[in-house]
Amino acid sequence: MKRLLYEPLSWLIALFLLLLWGLPHSEPLFAYWFPQLERPLYQQESFWRLTLAHLWLVASGTLLAVIVGAGGAIFATRRCGRAFRPTLETLAAAGQTIPPVAVLAIAVPVMGFGATPAIVALFLYGVLPVLQGTLAGIESLPASNREIATGLGMGPWRRLWQIELALAAPVMMAGIRTSVMINIGTAAIASTVGAASLGSPVIIGLSGFNTAYVIQGAILVALLALICDRLLERVQRWFTGYAE
To answer: Is the pTM of this model over 0.85?
Structure first.
């Protein structure tokens, strides 16, 4: 119990839940801080619903990034795929050079408004860290580990799963962690194409010159990023202990 009290993650989660519960009742406070605003509290949608929608966008975009990024890295480290590695890295890097707003503008005419174009933008932004992390993790393994696995009679798939990916997991998790952090911030702009997220108060506040809305959304996004970072740090440490 004492350990939980001194754990920053516990305090961050408690503060986040307190804000989710307390913000709908905080209109007098924001009215005092921003007396010039007619509506100082964002009330179009529930903050709980916006949080769940934000997490859904981040999880969907990151899952696609992990599937494509890790899969591409595994392919590029096989004998048949080494020649394609520069192409894969270039394509993944190109995804991050395109501004997410431009990706949304291109995707909306094809996919329509909603979560789908936002998930595409998150995938493009999140795939590079996963690809680089998986490549670095697999390539950091000593050749002797592969030779021992082969000597024990392990086939290529069993060696990949039980040796290469298991030992590369901590470095892979570092890439996934970076991808999630990028996507939590980027998901805030999903509201520009009609997808609900914690960025909705921020976007509406910016367009309506309502600073209170911007603060309410930005605080929740920042806390959510800190909580996810702490959680993924724990997962990464667990994988590190397992690999050792």
So the answer is: yes
